[in-house]
Design brief:
By secondary structure, the chain is an alpha/beta fold. The protein has one domain (2-249, 390-494). The protein is built from 17 helices and twelve strands. It has helices at residues 24-28, 38-44, 50-82, 97-105, 120-132, 161-182, 201-204, 212-229, 240-244, 250-271, 280-290, 302-310, 327-339, 358-387, 393-397, 449-454, 484-494, and strands at 46-48, 137-143, 193-199, 235-239, 402-405, 413-414, 419-420, 423-424, 431-438, 441-447, 458-462, 473-475. The strands form three sheets. The chain has a five-stranded mixed β-sheet with strand order 1-11-12-9-10. A five-stranded parallel β-sheet has the order 4-3-2-5-6. The two termini are 29 Å apart.
């Protein structure tokens, strides 16, 4: 058990997802769901002014975030006393600010999953050492890569209120930590807690054919949101390629490259002989058995789950000529191909025969699968080039920081995200969505575009944009709002910042 709570090189054979959009395959194949055509979108879209976003929406979000952070700070001391033994304290009364600060990081509103992958005592010791020197508590997480180009996930690639929601979630951890730290350091000025977000889009974008320009625009957009939220003094954005990979010692970079190359050769040697684009069901069964890095708690296996996720992440080179089609037509075209990608025995009756013939359709499907399989091997090899190192590269470049991650792993805390419809969708893999939280509450989360428009959600665009601009967020049709003013009024009194009830 103790080994599960300290960093261990190598992918965890029990449970360690590497990506989490595998549910998209079932979503895309659900005939009950459909995207809005241009006419329907124009009829349903609601507009909001930039001024209303700046002066009404954002202040409501920030105020609720601060309040929630204070609430979790109050709850932390009680939980620290409950877990006093985990800190080596003989009685509940012996816990202090360092234990309470640590307990914030184990709060299930902030920490994802029931499995504990970090030691409370180890983190407490590092927190205590920082506090003894009067230094702020520093934390770090790789996240916010870029908004995926999949037209079933979003109508654009700029950060929306989903990314704002992620930043506010980080802010809430900082508020809680700062509040508890300040109780024993009331004379200190400035932030007593800071978070570094490593934008890792430049680590993966070339593997899935996403242009650097998309990543750079996305990062600029996130920085703009940070500034508008007033959080740029406590949340710092760095770039993986420029600020982590380039800063690694030369011998570590060499080891990382060798590890990646060896992994790629190993996966290619094992997986390519099992690949048959005309028998993908057989292919999936074979690669599950042959997976060089199996995951016991995952029935499908790590590699198959990765394939199913990347199927809706890769920007397929073979589809680039078709992106010149009207967006409405391309979205339908893309959906038909991807939703039947793994089933060569199924026809695609909804495809417009004027776009591709049946023979061309099959050729496209096989070309997409070839790109997908290659991307999956490259992707898992890049993951292993970090995970197989004796020391985490981010921890090496940014020491003395509590290490957070999207998917919990030994020695790293998994960060919690709001779930909806049984899915946890990261903002870069979906579209911002205000949904009913029950009892009149409203919760901000993200869902794929297909799930939102398929359920009749209301798109909200900034009114100064074009008629078919990327929505800033969607509103759950079940909320029954009568207009943007009604929504803002209800949001001001009903915003629920809990990740779960």
């Amino acid at each position: 058990m103790q080994r599960e709570r300290i960093y261990q090189p190598g992918l965890n054979r029990r449970e360690e997802p590497v990506v989490s959009s595998h549910f998209m395959n079932g979503l895309s194949r659900d005939d009950r769901l459909s995207l809005y055509d241009d006419r329907t979108f124009s009829e349903r879209v609601v507009t909001i002014s930039r001024r209303a976003v700046a002066e009404q929406i954002l202040p409501v979000l920030v105020k609720a975030s601060v309040s929630f952070g204070h609430e979790r700070a109050r709850a932390a001391m009680k939980r620290a006393r409950l877990h006093h033994g985990s800190y080596g304290c003989s009685r509940p009364e012996a816990v202090g600010s360092a234990e309470a600060v640590t307990e914030v990081m184990f709060d299930r509103q902030f920490r994802r999953g029931s499995r504990e992958t970090c030691s409370r005592r180890t983190i407490r010791d590092s927190v205590l050492a920082r506090m003894a020197r009067g230094l702020p508590i520093e934390m770090v997480i790789p996240a916010l890569p870029y908004k995926f180009s999949c037209p079933l996930k979003t109508r654009g690639q700029l950060p929306d209120l989903g990314e704002v929601n992620f930043l506010l979630g980080v802010h809430e951890i900082l508020v809680a930590v700062d509040t508890l730290y300040r109780q024993s350091a009331s004379d200190r000025s400035g932030s007593l807690a800071r978070f570094t977000v490593i934008c890792d889009g430049t680590r993966f974008n070339a593997l899935v054919n996403e242009p650097d320009e998309v990543v750079m625009r996305y990062q600029a957009g996130v920085r703009d949101w940070l500034r508008r939220l007033g959080l740029d003094h406590e949340i710092c954005l760095l770039d993986y390629r420029a600020d982590i990979h380039a800063q690694l010692p030369r011998e570590i970079r060499c080891e990382k490259e060798i590890t990646r190359r060896v992994s790629r050769e190993r996966y290619a040697q094992v997986m390519w002989p099992a690949f048959d684009p005309r028998d993908m069901l057989g292919t999936l069964a074979r690669v599950t058995r042959l997976d060089p890095d199996p995951e016991r708690m995952n029935e499908k296996g790590r590699f198959v789950s990765l394939l199913e996720s990347l199927a809706f992440t890769v920007r397929y080179r073979c589809l680039e000529p078709y992106r010149a089609l009207p967006a409405e037509i391309f979205r339908a075209f893309y959906r038909e191909l991807t939703s039947h990608l793994f089933r060569s025995d199924e026809s695609l009756p909804r495809l417009d025969s004027s776009i591709v013939s049946g023979e061309e359709k099959e050729s496209l499907r096989e070309a997409m699968l070839l790109e997908l399989f290659e991307a999956a091997i490259e992707y898992i090899s890049e993951i292993k080039s970090d995970r197989d190192l004796a020391v985490d590269p981010i921890a090496l470049c940014l020491p003395e920081r509590v290490r957070w991650t999207i998917h919990a792993k030994p020695g790293q805390l998994g960060i919690a995200s709001p779930s909806t419809e049984g899915k946890v969708v990261q903002p870069w893999a979906g579209t911002a969505y205000f949904k009913s939280a029950g009892n009149g509450g409203i919760r901000l989360c993200s869902l794929p575009l297909l799930a939102l428009e398929g359920s009749g959600a209301v798109p909200v665009c900034v009114e100064e944009g074009s008629p078919h601009a990327q929505p800033l967020f969607y509103i759950d049709a079940g909320l029954g709002v009568t207009g943007i003013d009604d929504f803002i009024s209800r949001l001001a009194v009903g915003l629920d910042r809990r990740r779960s009830n």
